[in-house]
Amino acid sequence: MLKNRTGAACPASGAVTSASSATAAAEPIAEARATELSRSFGKATVEEGEREQRIRRVFESVARRYDLMNDLMSLGIHRRWKRKLVELAAPHAGQRIVDLAGGTGDVAALMAGLDRRVTVVDPSEPMMAVGRARGRCDIDWRVGTAEKLPLADASVDTLTMAFGIRNVTRLEPALAEVLRVLKPGGRFLCLEFSTPAAWLRPFYNLFSFTVIPRLGSWIARSPEAYVYLVESIRRFPDQRDFQRLIEQAGFVGVHYRNLSFGIACIHVGARPGQPEQGAVPEPDMS
Ligand SMILES: C[S@@+](CC[C@H](N)C(=O)[O-])C[C@H]1O[C@@H](n2cnc3c(N)ncnc32)[C@H](O)[C@@H]1O
To answer: How does pLDDT run across 125-163, given as a tens digit for each residue?
Structure first.
């Protein structure tokens, strides 16, 4: 069982539903969704450069209240999802571990420890400044984007990404970059909001379009940022389309696991090739 820094046992992942395999043929065109995403900012259609700038400003404006907002919006459930991500990542001593789009570093803090260092990569200095101020000496912070990772080829054992991929403007180059920096057999684990089960959608939509922007206004004083959040979730490829994009990027063993009936989802894929001697085998996803 995964333990957190204080040694407390993490709760079992009761909200996790079964993994699924892709049935690509019947699904919408994954590439078209990726192209659409690259030009979307919430409901608006914008140029790619403009999208990047606006997203940068969103995280600048919410950085100080970001973690509090996550707790309020998800009623704390994001912590459980992140612990599941870390449990599947199974970090261990001697590995090079990167948390991409790591923001304030909460996923990195779960993975780092006495014998493990984690590198956070994120384009937002204000987000990383909040994390840095917590004084963890087992986390390194590097400015960079998913589309141009400041990391050497085949240098990373495990690369996690939590709620970051939706903000990436060009998905395909970003996935190619992740593949480039992973060692053969190295794994990519990506936690993101996804498409919930049909029965849940009316409640989920009501909550998303009424409660979240109000919380964004009251707590983060940035309602636009949280309208962007809600809209961007809806424009991101669903579970199967994103699985296809990861497969098309060249990853192997790609699969996903729904969390909380598909509100969030963890996709896992590996760089082809044999892991180095002594690498820990992939945990059972069943
Ligand atoms: C929703 S936050 C997630 C932060 C953290 N991983 C978490 O789960 O709380 C999204 C993060 O993605 C970062 N981001 C935005 N565009 C990015 C890009 N092109 N490449 C990598 N990260 C990006 C933002 O700066 C922000 O810190």
So the answer is: 999 999 999 999 999 999 999 999 999 999 999 999 999
- pLDDT tens digit sequence for 23-74: 444 345 567 767 777 877 877 888 888 989 999 999 998 999 899 989 988 8
User: Which candidate, 82, 284, 108, 52, places its Cα nearest to that of 190?
Assistant: 82
**Residue ranges covered by each domain of the chain:** 57-269
Ligand 1 mean position, distance from CA 253 (Å): 25
User: Ligand 1 mean position to 22 CA, how many Å?
Assistant: 26
Question: pTM score, two decimals?
Answer: 0.85
* CATH fold for domain 57-269: Rossmann fold (3.40.50)
CA atoms in the 13 A half-sphere facing the CB of 45: 2
Residue in 58, 83, 119, 124 to alter for ligand 1 test, most ligand atoms within 8 A of Cβ: 124
Contact between 59 and 50 (Cβ < 8 Å): no
Ligand 1 center from residue 16 Cα (angstroms) = 23
